[in-house]
Amino acid sequence: MPPPQELPPVEPPVSPWHFPDPRGIDDDLIAIGADLAPGTLLAAYRAGLFPMPLDDDPTGWFSPVRRGVLPLGGLKVSKSLRRSFRDYEIRVDTAFSEVISACADPARDGGWIDEEIQHAYGVLHELGWAHSVEAWHEGSLEGGLYGIAIGGLFAGESMFHRRRDASKAALVGLVGLLADGHAERRLLDVQWRTDHLASLGVVEIPRREYLDRLRQALTLPLPAAFHRT
């Protein structure tokens, strides 16, 4: 029997919305409104933006002046994390809905993922653009992350854990999936740098540098792990 054919993501209808060039805006928040249709979301990521709900309900579109990225060669793996990683099985796209639901748990501090966001990214997952990287232990999903993959860009959205180091293990797994012949030009975006992410190797780069690197990354082929079959 021949191996299953790998298929590219499905390109949705073009969005009617136009996003401004973030280079001319001295603020992380670039635009407000539009919709969360697949074409709109992909247009935003390709322009260096991502959505988050605002307090007064409309969608905000952000492009941080200082962008958090994780250099694929700069991931910091401690000895304890290296030991923990051996306890997990890393899977891709076997439990996307459960991963995004866990990330959206309202009991988490700073939760921002509402039902509209979950639905929108669920549709992108069905089309082959949104992906989950999962850490399983003894048949149980213990942590993971999800994000958008477009060519050489992986835009991380959120992560969760139920067991020690499970979300970190998923991140280590993601870096491994991106570490192919195009790794030096791939772009792993984490939106903003936090102290926690910095401990794993995340750095800040200026928006203009991010946009320049994004333009190059979008020309690269999708990592093999994220092809549809």
Low-confidence spans: none
What's the shape?
Answer: globular
Number-wise, the strands total 10
Q: Helix coverage percent of residues?
A: 25-40%
Strand content: 15-25%
How is the quaternary structure best described?
Answer: single chain
What does this 3D model show about the protein?
By secondary structure, the chain is α+β, with helices and mostly antiparallel strands. It has helices spanning 38-46, 79-85, 96-103, 115-127, 166-178, 195-198, 207-217; strands at 29-32, 50-53, 59-62, 66-69, 89-92, 130-137, 140-150, 153-161, 187-191, 203-206. The strands form two sheets. The protein has a seven-stranded mixed sheet, with helices on both faces. The longest helix has 13 residues, at 115-127.
Question: What labels describe this entry?
Answer:
229 residues, alpha+beta, seven-stranded mixed beta sheet, three-stranded antiparallel beta sheet
Task: Chart the SSEs and their pairings.
Layout (H helix, E strand, L loop, with lengths): L28 E4 L5 H9 L3 E4 L5 E4 L3 E4 L9 H7 L3 E4 L3 H8 L11 H13 L2 E8 L2 E11 L2 E9 L4 H13 L8 E5 L3 H4 L4 E4 H11 L12
Parallel strand pairs: 8-9
Antiparallel strand pairs: 1-3, 2-3, 4-9, 4-10, 5-6, 6-7, 7-8
Short description:
By secondary structure, this protein is α+β, with helices and mostly antiparallel strands. The protein has helices at residues 38-46, 79-85, 96-103, 115-127, 166-178, 195-198, 207-217; strands spanning 29-32, 50-53, 59-62, 66-69, 89-92, 130-137, 140-150, 153-161, 187-191, 203-206.
